[in-house]
Amino acid sequence: MKKIPPILFPTGDDGASAGRVLVVGASGPTGGAVVRALSGRGAIVRGIARSDVGEQQARKAGADEVVRADLRHPDDLRTAMAGVESAFYFSPRAVPDEAALGRAFIKAAEESGVSRIVVISMINSHAPIPNHQESLQVEEALARTSLSSVILQPAMFMQTLPHLDRISELGWVGRPYPIDVPLAWVDFNDVAEIAATSLLTSSMDNGTFELCSGGMLTIAEIGGLMSEALGSTIESREITLEEWAAVRGEDFSSPYRRECYAEMFDYFSKYGFKGGNSLVANMLLGRSPVTWPEYLVRTKQAR
Ligand SMILES: NC(=O)c1ccc[n+]([C@@H]2O[C@H](COP(=O)([O-])OP(=O)(O)OC[C@H]3O[C@@H](n4cnc5c(N)ncnc54)[C@H](OP(=O)(O)O)[C@@H]3O)[C@@H](O)[C@H]2O)c1
């Protein structure tokens, strides 16, 4: 991996005085990755969980403290935010109250004396897709708060395609859109590393950052890379929404959720998912962001 010098931020400080950091979704993959990225960097990490299992997962990721809180309960949020310096937030995906939950989180942070909020939105949050539009409303709410805020706009997480072991079992990789549309991607561990920096220093305050691995790759190209990594042919397929849901374990718990995914995949069918400029991620990481071949090598080594 090509090393480049890290950007020198004029207002940067180190993590030693970072205080207590709150992490939403610490029981899940995205928040868990942020907890792991924070560990050993001088802050007390407080994860949010909703169940015993969730608490175990948050602690396994490295949370020093776990608070039981539901984003829909403002009292829970105020308890979770007591004594917190910086808070990491993302909206639960494809729920109809995504924007309202974001606004409630910002309000609770303002009332609780939190200094900084770091939010994961997404690249192309302006796209006419329901959950993207909800994320855009959260971005807009951050523009109106007096708290320091950081908006991270990642491309599609590489981790949203099935693990290489599962791909090997299936013999194919697919999505509910044509295999030749180009898409922007990023490894969510790179996003987590950048999130940790933005939580522990003032260097990224009040900025919005698109986070992409370099270039755009189609499902056909990724299928080719998976074939090379596995040493066997992986077919690239356009599949139906139902086939995708079955592989993903998505139960479409509401009509809204189904509509979100259907509209998102329809958008990708027409336009792909534009992005892939890695300049910002390069600067923030001090190295090139992980590419698809590198991600597959790492996944294979970890099997
Ligand atoms: N997927 C992508 O490619 C992509 C790309 C760009 C941006 N994003 C954005 O990145 C964010 C994370 O994506 P994800 O959904 O894949 O993350 P995830 O890690 O699967 O999110 C689930 C986590 O959220 C927690 N959670 C859900 N509802 C909650 C509630 N009401 N109160 C408290 N905690 C709650 C869950 O807790 P429990 O364990 O208790 O259920 C779990 O820890 C989303 O905002 C998404 O829009 C995703």
Automatic annotation (TrEMBL):
What's the short name of a Pfam family annotated to this entry? NmrA
- Domain NmrA-like residue range list: 19-274
Show the stretches that span the lipid bilayer.
Answer: none
Where would one find the signal peptide in this protein?
none
Q: What is this protein called?
A: Unannotated protein
Which source organism does the UniProt entry give? freshwater metagenome
Taxonomic classification: unclassified sequences, metagenomes, ecological metagenomes
